[in-house]
């Protein structure tokens, strides 16, 4: 790849990274092209060198935001060597995750947008859901219920973060995270002891 092609690719990735952070924080309707390009240190005129339209940027930024979470989920699962699922649960339901939507899981912030979005966004969202389900199911050694348990776990994780961000009472928000984490870890411990 030539120097100018490498620079173009790096610039495009910088814009995608900024846009992915902004749509997780503000939703897909808020950030304007001029605003995003300015934040990337570029002019509005350079936008079309990288993207066909604002919709193209939002679709690609959504996919970028969704895919970025895979590495985070894998790292979270490795934090607890004795119980990878518990490590993932604790990291996902942490207050820092709730309080950092710009860098948090895009499944939470993009769910409603994906439901109303174009087919490309829905496909990127579904791909990430399936990736997470596979990752979570893979944490169970021999469980025949790994798939349904992964679906329940992921749904509870995403739902708990969404609810904890949406309520006004900070104490109640904390309680949602703590209660769901406790119940999921307890369920995990029960599943592990049943397999022994």
Secondary-structure blueprint:
Layout: H1 3-26, H2 33-39, H3 54-78, H4 84-92, H5 95-99, H6 106-116, H7 119-137, H8 146-166, H9 170-195
Helix pairs in contact: 1-3, 3-4, 3-7, 4-9, 6-7, 7-8, 8-9
Structure description:
It contains 9 helices and no strands. Helix 4 runs antiparallel to helix 9 (170-195), helix 6 (106-116) runs antiparallel to helix 7 and helix 7 (119-137) crosses helix 8 (146-166). The mean pLDDT is 88. The protein has helices at residues 3-26, 33-39, 54-78, 84-92, 95-99, 106-116, 119-137, 146-166, 170-195. It has a single domain (3-195), classed as Tetracycline Repressor, domain 2. Helices cover 75% and strands 0% of the residues. It is mostly helical. Keywords: DNA-binding, Plasmid, Transcription, Transcription regulation. Residues 9-69 form the HTH tetR-type domain.
**Structural domain count:** 1
| Main beta sheet | none
Q: What is the straight-line distance between the termini?
A: 54 Å
Sequence of secondary-structure elements: HHHHHHHHH
Question: What structural category arises from helix and sheet content?
Answer: mainly alpha
Overall strand count: 0
CATH architecture call: Orthogonal Bundle
Please name the fourth-level CATH homologous superfamily. Answer: Tetracycline Repressor, domain 2
Radius of gyration: 19 Å
The helix count comes to 9
Inertia-based shape:
elongated
Q: How would you state the average pLDDT, rounded? A: 88
The percent range for strand residues is under 5%
For the record, what CATH class applies?
Answer: Mainly Alpha
Helix content: over 70%
